[in-house]
């Protein structure tokens, strides 16, 4: 009896666990699992190296689905077709996941969208360089659908060459547009250009330019030698050592605070001198006036001595000397 109850409890636990698991799965992705898909099939008549399974497929940048199959038309539709009649296309299938109403509308509007120029094109994804599939509207006249004879298994969407394919196609078209006359004319123009360049090079004063360049190199060599001798001079080394020693002593004085004490002493002396001049301003003015008077007297004395030196010795000019014959 106890064993049967244990089995019943175990069965209830399993049932409840499965129910909870189903509920969780339903919350996480139930709708997505049962959401309708819309498979698109397109063909490329060129290499799509870099496009891999699982690559995203976008409609004008909006995520639409992903690439689910990359096949060849030979293995898919042309097994019984003669080799010389095979197209050798690359078949790419994209599974688009969307709500039911949107999927129904897409299937209904797809023929009209193709007529308006909806095409599938390979693109490079930014820095990574991975290729993806882009659905966008292009000119239907310049990007017509590829020709084939089989019935597509899924909804067919015409393709357009990728950017690299367009560049190659334009280069091939440009080369094909060049005829023999254009190539011959281009060759003659190149030959004329080379001849003119050769003539201009022959007119250049090569010897003069070479002599000038050689002289400039000699001057540079002489300057370098003088600079080397200057740097190797012992007196320059001694000057640099003395400058370094002076700089070290100045730095030491600055670090010890001696500069601050010197500046403070100069400031105090200036203040004391200013106070002294302010207190004795009148006396200083009198002294200056006396010095000016003394300087004037000295200048007058100097002029008198220069004019009449005897005045300095006798105080007055000497009398006239009478000779013997002049006495009475």
- DSSP summary, beta strand count: 7
The radius of gyration computed from the alpha-carbon positions, rounded to a whole number of angstroms, is: 56 Å
First-residue to last-residue Cα separation: 197 Å
Structural class: alpha/beta
Detailed description of the structure:
By secondary structure, the chain is an alpha/beta fold. The protein has a domain at 31-161. Helix content is 59%, strand content 15%. The chain has a seven-stranded mixed beta sheet with strand order 5-6-2-3-4-1-7. A hairpin with a 4-residue loop joins strand 5 (118-125) and strand 6 (130-137). The longest helix has 32 residues, at 2-33. The radius of gyration is 56 Å and the shape is elongated.
Characteristic key phrases:
elongated; 328 residues; 7-stranded mixed beta sheet; alpha/beta
Q: How does the SSE layout of this entry go?
A:
Elements: H1 2-33, E1 37-44, E2 56-59, E3 62-72, H2 73-76, E4 90-97, H3 100-115, E5 118-125, E6 130-137, E7 155-156, H4 163-177, H5 180-203, H6 206-232, H7 234-256, H8 258-279, H9 281-307, H10 310-314
Parallel strand pairs: 1-7, 2-6
Antiparallel strand pairs: 1-4, 2-3, 3-4, 5-6
